[in-house]
Amino acid sequence: MDREFLENIAREAGGLALELFGRVRSEKKGTSLVSEADKTVERMIISRIWSEYPNDFILAEESGKNGFTDFGEITRWWAVDPIDGTGPYLKNLPFWGVSVACMRGSRTECGAVYLPVLNDMFSAVSGGPSHRNGKPLVPLRQVPPEDHDYLFIPCANLKGLRIRYPGRNLSLAAASLHLSYAAAGSSFGVVVEPTRAYDIAASALIFEEAGGAVRYLSGKEINYLELADGRLTLEPVIATPRSQIAWLQKQVDWPV
Questions:
Q1: SS3 185
Q2: What values do phi and psi take at 28, rounded to 5?
């Protein structure tokens, strides 16, 4: 898969979201928020993907499952979050972005995350270096956290979730931003609440190709085929430099 193709889609979608920034109202969607911008941007992304790959299945945050397929390990499909960080978007904050992932069976093949207000583009292809604005990211340092290192955590208080971290906690309210900026070395790692494929597939690849590990809290690897129907993971996701994943596991508690 061509990284440039995903970057172009994400950048175009981000431009559309910027045109609507500060001009739309929120709507209730269960316990979360959505706006007409989310729906408009998502329709654009789906149209762009299907213009090149008309038979591919797309899992998207607002419309759910688009298209039909028999899934297998060689199946190509897509995971799309048109505006990750709808809350910040609706409050005129810059901490939101467009996330597009091309999947191959259970794994992410290519991903792009674009943060329009900050004009930051993160991307990666499986087996190659992660990029920020066209330049390869410096590999993550494989060392324990220092006192002033950040850990990105969920913005909501989740019942039963306990995090013991010696540094500083920070939340920007969007998992794709957390994982992308952690890949750039802005934080030691990330704790993500139970989530869906479109929330993390692209940014998790970016983090992994920068030298990180992304796992379920139990230590199990993420099989995205199990999430292709849009289901929520049963446990949180954690991400750190590869050598530190076991350490972070011990700092996080979640009721089974």
A1: coil
A2: -75, 135
> Could you give the 3-state DSSP secondary structure of residue 41?
helix
Whose tokens are 């139990």? That residue is 218
Let me know the angle formed at the C-alpha of 125 by 99 and 206, rounded to the nearest 5 degrees: 55
Question: Can you tell me the distance from the alpha carbon of 238 to that of 249, in angstroms, rounded to the nearest whole number?
Answer: 8
Residue numbers of the domain that contains 12: 3-136
pTM over 0.70: yes
Tell me, what amino acid is at 246? A
In a shared domain, residues 158 and 113: no
pLDDT at 25: 63
Distance CA 218, CA 201 (A): 18
Measure CA 104 to chain center. Answer: 17
Q: One-letter amino acid identity for 28?
A: K
Tokens 């597939």 identify what position? 201
